[in-house]
Specification:
By secondary structure, this protein is an alpha/beta fold. It is 25% helix and 26% strand. It starts with 6 loop residues before the first strand and ends with a strand.
């Protein structure tokens, strides 16, 4: 069953972003009730001008389907050719089950199995690694990888972290490519000590002080952070990312000087540039969309990939390194050669 001569690469990229643009002015009349003493309100908008917001009545699966369709069209792959779909929904339609089987059904992928994969913001890298290994093994031929984030359904607008996040959905098709292209190697780490640094929990919105006994409960499922651990994670971010970046390169015959392009998750305004600097890459060898999209979780890398391709920044044969952190705490990086 195993055929190690096979190699796997990205055949197409799709992006589906909301039409509504929310600019920084949205927060002009809102107070951040948990703003640390060391920060000003202006600090909460560093590096970002706007973010996208899906309609309130839209389901995450609907955006995932749109992104999947866009990727299939871009790859010129028929739905019948897909034999597996991997889905990461940061906010699924239901708590249980995940969206994968619904997306498979609604997309009409009649020959495909459907799996939910979740390592939070690092899920795209995790899914790409898994898809590449499964194709290399010969178990599957063409895999559709889809991600979405609906931050607008879980944000507390009086939380100082919320201007940094946005909504979006993206997808790629992974399939067999010539031997000199595609997936090379990867490295992943986890540290469960930071499991509760960022969570979604049922709690009172920051602006809710109390309720009368006859009023509907104001409890909501909202993004919640453990301030102490979140700060620790930020301070150690470069160490954790350095480990996965250089361990990935160490597993290959490549060095940082061989890299043509770098793409990463963008959790805040400084992360992507700081991680790129670890590799001593110039700005023109990377692409980011934080200023227009903000933190869009596992959608960040394929979204930046889509725009980089649109702007002719990636070409066939380029050696590309992708990397992401993810709440949990997870870190993942993958090295591959662009095949299209």
């Amino acid at each position: 069953m195993t055929n190690c001569k096979k190699n796997a690469g990205i055949l197409g990229v799709g992006l589906y972003m909301p039409e509504e643009i929310r600019t920084n002015d949205y927060w002009n009349d809102k107070e951040f009730l948990n703003l640390p003493p060391s920060k000003s309100k202006k600090d909460c908008f560093l590096g970002i001008d706007e973010r996208r917001v899906f309609p309130k009545n839209m389901l995450p699966s609907e955006a995932e389907i749109k992104a999947g369709e866009a990727a299939l069209k871009n790859a010129n792959i028929s739905k019948e050719e897909i034999d597996l779909v991997l889905v990461h929904s940061m906010v699924p339609n239901e708590t249980v089950p995940g969206n994968a089987s619904l997306v498979q059904y609604e997309l009409g992928l009649k020959n495909a199995a459907a799996w939910n994969i979740d390592t939070c913001c690092s899920s795209f890298v995790t899914m790409f690694i898994n898809a590449s290994a499964l194709i290399k093994s010969g178990m599957f031929k063409k895999i559709l990888v889809i991600t979405s984030i609906f931050h607008s359904k879980i944000i507390d607008e009086n939380d100082y972290l919320t201007p940094y996040v946005g909504d979006g959905s993206s997808a790629v098709v992974v399939g067999e490519v010539p031997e000199e292209y595609g997936y090379i190697t990867s490295h992943c780490t986890s540290n469960g000590y930071y499991h509760d640094a960022f969570t979604v929990r049922e709690r009172l919105p920051l602006a809710s002080k109390y309720r009368s006994h006859f009023e509907k409960s104001p409890l909501q499922n909202l993004m919640t952070s453990n301030t102490k651990k979140a700060r620790e994670m930020g301070k150690k971010s470069l160490d954790y990312m350095s480990e996965v970046l250089f361990e990935t390169l160490n597993k290959s015959d490549y060095s940082k000087s061989d890299l043509d392009f770098f793409l990463s998750h963008q959790p805040c305004h400084w992360a992507h540039d700081a991680w790129r600097d670890l590799l001593e890459l110039s700005e023109d060898k990377s692409y980011q969309t934080f200023n227009i999209y903000g933190n869009i979780a596992s959608t960040s890398i394929p979204a930046s990939m889509y725009h980089a391709l649109e702007n002719n920044r990636i070409k066939k044969g380029d050696t590309i390194l992708i990397a992401s952190s993810g709440a949990g705490e997870n870190h993942a990086a993958a090295l591959f050669k662009w095949a299209i």
